[in-house]
């Protein structure tokens, strides 16, 4: 099983779950497993925080203390190991707040998030017209190696842009294992400027400390293939409208904005 996981770039536990979920009388059949996955995805799923009210109260208390959804999810895993009824992922917390069943977490809790928006808006709705468009040749975050997912080794980074006053911007880069932060000053937000700055920054680090970069689907990374050719660093992209899949970077950006809220305007994103 470990050999299969290594070949696929997945954790052994992921392969084990897939086999348990789809191992029938005739063994594992890829076609049947794929169809079953589609069937499960189409089934409506109740919001976990709407069903488990005690869990929702735990989450609400922590959010009121200015905890990020990532920190809340981590605390639940540490406090209730093995008890999945008392655990919830940070993505579920975000979805509950911004998308589905808002009554499960009161809307006033939005004020306690580090980025106070009434709605969690995608780049499609918030970026200026010149930043719209589809990025060619993206590699999904689902293809990211297992060593990045479980933070087993350093060198896997998450990145984003932050915008400030007077049309200023910086790139924020956070290393997933150590949470080390690098800030890259930018003279513009177009893809050539951003990618050139990221290439220059990447060349300052040893190869073993910069193995991959995860970004969301902002148009500033349209030239991602040039970055990869210049640095031999693969760029992985979040699913559309799922920027919270870069949870380490999202949380760090929130802390940076708290530190410099008088000069930084995230609302332009």
Automatic annotation (TrEMBL):
GO biological process: DNA integration; DNA recombination; transposition
PROSITE patterns linked: INTEGRASE
InterPro entries xrefs: Integrase_cat-core, IS30-like_HTH, RNaseH-like_sf, RNaseH_sf, Transposase-Integrase, Transposase_IS30-like
Key words of the record: DNA recombination
GO cellular component terms, A-Z: cytosol
SUPFAM superfamilies documented for this protein: Ribonuclease H-like (SSF53098)
Molecular functions (GO terms): nucleic acid binding; transposase activity
UniProt-listed Gene3D superfamilies: Ribonuclease H-like superfamily/Ribonuclease H
Domain (Integrase catalytic) ranges: 141-269
Stretch list, region Disordered: 248-269
Organism superkingdom: Bacteria
Name of this chain's protein: IS30 family transposase
Organism, scientific name: Dokdonella fugitiva
């Amino acid at each position: 099983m470990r050999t299969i996981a290594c070949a696929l770039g997945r954790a052994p536990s992921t392969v084990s779950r897939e086999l348990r979920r789809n191992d029938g009388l005739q063994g594992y059949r890829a076609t049947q497993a794929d169809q079953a996955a589609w069937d499960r995805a189409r089934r409506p799923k109740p919001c976990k925080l709407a069903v488990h009210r005690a869990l929702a109260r735990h989450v609400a208390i922590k959010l009121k203390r200015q905890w990020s959804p990532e920190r809340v999810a981590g605390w639940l895993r540490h406090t209730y190991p093995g008890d999945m009824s008392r655990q919830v992922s940070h993505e579920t917390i975000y979805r509950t707040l911004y998308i589905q069943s808002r009554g499960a977490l009161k809307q006033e809790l939005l004020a306690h998030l580090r980025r106070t928006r009434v709605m969690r808006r995608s780049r499609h709705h918030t970026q200026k017209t010149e930043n719209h468009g589809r990025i060619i040749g993206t590699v999904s975050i689902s293809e990211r190696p297992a060593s990045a997912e479980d933070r087993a080794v350093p060198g896997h980074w998450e990145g984003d842009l932050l915008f400030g006053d007077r049309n200023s911007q910086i790139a924020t880069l956070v290393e997933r294992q150590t949470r080390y932060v690098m800030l890259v000053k930018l003279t513009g937000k177009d893809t050539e400027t951003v990618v050139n700055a990221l290439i220059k920054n990447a060349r300052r680090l040893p190869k073993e400390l910069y193995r991959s970069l995860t970004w969301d689907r902002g148009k500033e990374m349209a030239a991602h293939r040039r970055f990869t050719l210049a640095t031999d660093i693969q760029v992985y992209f979040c699913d559309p409208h799922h920027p919270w899949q870069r949870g380490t970077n999202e949380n760090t950006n929130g802390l940076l904005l708290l530190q410099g809220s008088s000069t930084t305007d995230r609302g332009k994103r």
